[in-house]
């Protein structure tokens, strides 16, 4: 019996494993980098072990197998759960854990090795008669993939031969850095395919459970955003084909534990094997909801040698998961940093969160804040429940993808099950209704006025004309609020039919054309978050007299976010550069950001070097162009954790 588990991971998955361990009476051990010293997963663990790396980057901490094994032994753990990402599919790490006398909560190293390389896995599946994607010479578009990679990171779509060499070089460099293996391969890029995966669970006694399939087609940057089970509209024949292929793959390598076999279903309905992930998946909660299981508990029991029942439980209902990210969809999914002041979601939804209230979302790791899951008797009910729950959630902090998630869940094509990996490419983020933003700004101003009066309450809101200005986030639109109180009540410019019923520092009740609504107001410095039935609005209070701004040299290219300079282009100061030519690459939050010349000109200055930490707004380079264009082209690319 396992008595203490070290989770070789961080954030949401570490907290998820700890929750099951507590329910089973198992002690918990966390590992943490310097940046994670006060993280939620460290606070929740019984014991925490600092990883003494030279920095907080994954390569210095969570990817160092020797440090992890030493931490487990030092803390008295007798088992290691790898989570997902980092070292979870590293066969050498699994061997090191067992060599130290610890229990590895996962498949055998040999199984990881068999499926860890996508090229070897494809050969194995092809020999078993499962269709695989093979790129023909000169065929485009193709997808460049790291053979030892996973999680959608490091992939590149190449549409013509001219771009292939650069894509191959970049993918090889990323693969070697992240996985210690620079092997890459090509496969045909299937436009408008569906990403469908099958959950398997196997014990050491020959039992293999097939726990349904999940549709994971809604993706950005080849990384999943919304997942659900069962997959809508695939038909019994295709479902049976996928399930049988997944079972065959598991039995072919003597698999034990939880794993996922992934397929790409072409528009013509033909399925192709993509890869097998020899670990727990991020989206495992939807399977748990539908089958009424705890997959982490089953992983632990299988590692302890227990037998599974001959057949899995019958599924029930439909479950949908949305990944809530600190990122701005309107700015090409640019990751965001800052303090997460509050995350509140209704009790009708399951929430697996990476952060707690007051935690800081830093630049070192994945920007996922939480996974939010709805389970209901039907798909339509689950979509409605999740959309409304997200809409009414309090998410106070960095800009997130919450509004886009709600938009997707309510989109007619999504509701009809018309899904593909290109789904988000056809979605244009819809900004908040101007009227909703104006009312939110008015509520924020009235709450602020009530907060300043020693007695509080709406009767004490100043009767003199008031002006307040706010910038709505993330679109940057400025909203000026003009209002005053008279004997007849509230007079708000632009809202002649608005009445004020109550004003307090944290809540305002307004009546508009006979419709009464409550606005919850939370203020954090100059940031104000307003939540109401009209939706959530984030505002920044604008000062009455703007502070002087620092001027930058014309042609300056500024860092779009805090990060680390990971490599430089070929151009040096004084060289002529062409429009779009890469000058340097920043890495932040598992994303690589290419900073390129905005136009043809001369690289007048380069203020960056490899390994340099830069803050948002730092001047990275200066390109002198004819029109003195002050624009930075940022192309975001996924990099492994």
Q: What proportion strand?
A: 25-35%
Strand order of the largest sheet: 13-12-9-10-11-14-21-19
Weakly predicted, low-confidence segments: 628-632
Question: Would you tell me the overall average pLDDT?
Answer: 90
Q: Sum up the overall morphology in one term.
A: globular
Broad structural category: alpha+beta
Amount of helix: 10-25%
Largest sheet: 8 strands, antiparallel
How many DSSP E strands? 39
How large, in whole angstroms, is the Cα Rg?
26 Å
Number of helices, where a helix is a run of at least 4 consecutive DSSP H or I residues = 14
The first-to-last residue Cα distance is 32 Å
Task: Note the main attributes of this structure.
alpha+beta; 39 strands; 8-stranded antiparallel β-sheet; 24% helix; 641 residues
Task: Briefly summarize what is shown.
The protein has 641 residues and is of the alpha+beta class.
What does the model show?
The strands form nine sheets. Strands 13-12-9-10-11-14-21-19 form an eight-stranded antiparallel β-sheet, with helices on both faces. Strands 25-24-23-30-29-28-27-26 form an eight-stranded antiparallel β-sheet, with helices on one face. Strands 3-2-1-4-5 form a five-stranded parallel β-sheet. By secondary structure, the protein is of the alpha+beta class. About 1% of the residues have low confidence.
Topology (SSEs and partners):
Layout: E1 4-7, H1 11-24, E2 27-32, H2 40-44, E3 47-50, H3 65-75, E4 79-81, H4 91-99, E5 103-104, H5 109-116, H6 118-127, E6 142-146, E7 156-158, H7 164-179, E8 184-188, E9 194-202, E10 208-220, E11 223-229, H8 235-252, E12 257-265, E13 271-277, H9 284-291, H10 295-303, E14 318-325, E15 327-328, E16 334-335, E17 338-340, E18 342-344, E19 350-353, E20 359-361, E21 368-376, H11 379-392, E22 394-396, H12 402-409, H13 412-415, H14 434-452, E23 466-473, E24 478-486, E25 489-492, E26 498-504, E27 507-512, E28 515-524, E29 527-532, E30 535-541, E31 556-558, E32 563-568, E33 576-577, E34 582-588, E35 591-596, E36 601-606, E37 613-614, E38 619-625, E39 633-638
Parallel strand pairs: 1-2, 1-4, 2-3, 4-5
Antiparallel strand pairs: 6-7, 6-8, 9-10, 9-12, 10-11, 11-14, 12-13, 14-21, 15-16, 17-20, 18-22, 19-21, 23-24, 23-30, 24-25, 26-27, 27-28, 28-29, 29-30, 31-38, 32-34, 32-37, 33-36, 34-35, 35-39, 36-38
């Amino acid at each position: 019996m396992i008595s203490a588990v070290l989770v070789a991971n961080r954030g949401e998955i570490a907290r998820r494993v700890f929750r099951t361990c507590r329910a089973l009476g198992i002690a918990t051990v966390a590992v943490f980098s310097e940046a994670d010293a006060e993280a939620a997963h460290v606070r929740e663990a019984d014991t925490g072990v600092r990883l003494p790396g030279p920095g907080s980057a994954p390569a210095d901490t969570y990817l160092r197998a020797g440090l992890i094994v030493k931490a487990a032994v030092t803390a008295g753990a007798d088992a290691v759960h790898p989570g997902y990402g980092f070292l979870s599919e590293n066969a050498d790490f699994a061997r090191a854990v067992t060599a130290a006398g610890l229990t590895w909560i996962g498949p055998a190293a040999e199984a990881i090795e068999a499926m860890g390389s996508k090229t070897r896995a494809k050969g194995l599946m092809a020999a078993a008669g499962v269709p695989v994607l093979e790129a023909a010479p000169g065929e485009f578009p193709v997808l460049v993939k790291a053979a030892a990679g996973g999680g959608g990171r490091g992939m590149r779509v190449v549409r013509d031969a001219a771009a292939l060499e650069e894509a191959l070089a970049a993918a090889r460099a990323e693969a070697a850095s992240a996985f210690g293996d620079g092997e890459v391969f090509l496969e045909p890029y299937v436009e408008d395919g569906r990403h469908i995966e099958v959950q398997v669970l196997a014990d050491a006694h020959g039992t293999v459970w097939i726990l349904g399939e999940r549709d994971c087609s809604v993706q950005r940057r080849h990384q999943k955003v919304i997942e659900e089970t069962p997959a809508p509209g695939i038909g019994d024949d295709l479902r049976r084909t996928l399930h049988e292929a997944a079972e065959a793959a598991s039995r072919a390598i003597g698999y034990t534990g939880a794993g996922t076999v992934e397929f790409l279903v072409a528009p013509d309905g033909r399925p192709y094997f993509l890869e097998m992930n020899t670990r727990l998946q991020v989206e495992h909660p939807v399977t748990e909801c539908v089958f009424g299981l705890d997959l982490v508990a089953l992983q632990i029991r299988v590692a302890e040698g227990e037998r599974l029942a001959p057949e899995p439980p019958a599924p029930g209902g439909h479950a949908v998961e949305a990944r809530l990210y600190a990122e701005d969809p309107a700015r090409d999914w640019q990751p965001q940093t800052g303090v997460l002041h509050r995350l509140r979601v209704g009790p009708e939804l399951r929430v697996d969160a990476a952060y707690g209230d007051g935690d800081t979302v830093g630049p070192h790791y994945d920007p996922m804040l939480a996974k939010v899951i709805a389970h209901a008797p039907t798909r339509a009910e689950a979509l409605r429940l999740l959309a409304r729950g997200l809409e009414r959630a309090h998410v106070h902090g960095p800009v997130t993808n919450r509004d886009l998630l709600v938009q997707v869940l309510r989109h007619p094509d999504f509701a009809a099950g018309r899904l593909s990996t290109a789904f988000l490419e056809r979605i244009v983020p819809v900004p908040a209704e101007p009227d909703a933003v104006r009312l939110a700004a008015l509520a924020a101003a009235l709450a602020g006025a009530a907060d300043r009066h020693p007695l509080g309450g709406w009767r004490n809101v100043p009767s003199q004309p008031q002006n307040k200005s706010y910038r709505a986030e993330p679109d940057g639109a400025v909203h000026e609020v003009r209002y005053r109180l008279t004997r007849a009540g509230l007079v708000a410019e632009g809202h002649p039919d608005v009445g004020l019923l109550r004003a307090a520092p944290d809540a305002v009740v307004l009546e508009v054309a006979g419709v009464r609504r409550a606005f919850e107001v939370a203020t954090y410095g100059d940031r104000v978050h307003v939540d109401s039935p009209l939706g959530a609005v984030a505002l920044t209070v604008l000062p009455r007299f703007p502070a002087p701004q620092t001027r930058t040299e014309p042609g300056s290219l500024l860092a779009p976010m805090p990060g680390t300079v990971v490599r430089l282009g070929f151009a040096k100061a004084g060289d002529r550069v062409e429009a779009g030519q890469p000058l340097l690459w920043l890495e932040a939050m598992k994303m690589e950001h290419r900073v390129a010349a905005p136009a043809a000109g001369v690289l007048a200055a380069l203020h960056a070097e490899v390994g340099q930490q830069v803050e948002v707004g730092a001047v990275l380079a200066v390109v002198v162009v004819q029109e003195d264009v002050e624009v930075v082209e940022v192309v975001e690319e996924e990099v492994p954790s």
